[in-house]
Design a protein that fits this description.
eight-stranded mixed β-sheet, 14 strands, globular
Length: 300
């Protein structure tokens, strides 16, 4: 955390923006621990809230209920070190007008409201239930930024242009609308995920000609923007029901999948490829086949 964000951190306690039931993230990897409930174990709940881990707050777009784990985590209160590294990259000024894409639990919107003023913050959330709960938490904490229920990929044109845009869901493409709603010289900070794998936080500066460019400033692991989720299909849809290699060409390599399975090589491969992704088919003896699939589901 940079020193300029310390007053906002102290003014906006994380616990005010965390629901009663949470699934703490793991220190290593992207999995979730079992649920922790404030009502039954307040000590464990506070320990989780004040740990440097993400806290899953919703599964399966809200269709999953109860304290068990669902299939896919779809909302979280992000890891504090990630939150403040992205806020540092955003480099806000006292005058900055900020758009946040992905309200989530509302913590980022509150931190931004504390830093630049609630009248300069617009936050967009696609999930109506998450948006309502976040708006309630913001109001209880004394903040009333403009909180919109809508498609974050479309930004919020009514309050544009923005000096800064913070996106809190991973993207495979930066939406054209977001770039167009950011003034020249403005900054966009977003997780960027390749189709192949790996993800990094990118810091883009919008140019006078309407383009945006900039460096990657760190690794990340965010939930995908709902409008950009990928649909994965079974291998049978590639092979047409025929045994491998079907009508394709079979080749071999001495390169182990383990050599290119970490975050950095996957991200590097993903930046140089389009329309392909790896898929592991695991077997009972612990071995596996690593398929390289294409998103167009072509054969051969």
């Amino acid at each position: 955390m940079t020193s300029d964000w310390l007053p906002a951190y102290k003014a906006v306690p994380r616990e005010r923006f965390v629901p009663e039931v949470i699934w703490p993230g793991q220190a290593q990897g992207t999995g979730q621990e079992d649920a922790v409930d404030l009502r039954t174990d307040p000590e464990a709940w506070r320990q989780a809230v004040y740990s440097d881990v993400s806290l899953t707050t919703q599964w399966d777009d809200g269709e999953h209920t109860g304290t068990g784990k669902g299939q896919v985590p779809t909302c979280s209160n992000s890891q504090p070190s990630m939150v403040f590294s992205m806020l540092a990259a955003l480099d806000v000024e006292p005058y900055s007008r900020v758009l946040e894409v992905g309200t989530g639990t509302g913590w980022n919107a509150a931190l931004l409201s504390e830093r630049v003023g609630q009248d300069k913050v617009v936050t967009v959330e696609v999930d109506a239930q998450n948006a309502a709960e976040a708006r309630a938490r913001l109001g209880t904490a004394g903040y009333t930024p403009l909180a919109v229920v809508g498609d974050g990929a479309q930004g919020w044109q009514a309050s544009a242009p923005y000096d800064r845009v913070l996106i809190t869901a991973s993207l495979r493409q930066i939406p054209r609308a977001i770039i167009d709603q950011t003034r020249p010289g403005g900054i966009i900070v977003s997780p960027y995920a390749t189709e192949y794998g790996g993800e990094g936080v990118v810091r883009l500066t919008v140019q006078e000609d309407g383009t945006a460019s900039g460096p990657f400033v760190g690794s990340s692991a965010f939930m995908r923007l709902r409008q950009q989720r990928a649909r994965r299909v079974h291998v049978r849809e590639y092979l047409g029901g025929k045994p491998w290699p079907a009508n394709g060409s079979k080749s071999t390599t001495g390169l182990s999948p383990e050599a290119v399975g970490d975050w950095l090589p996957m991200f590097a491969i993903g930046l140089q490829t389009q329309g392909v992704f790896p898929w592991a088919e695991n077997y009972a003896d612990g071995s596996y086949t690593l398929w390289l699939r294409d998103t167009a589901v072509t054969h051969g």
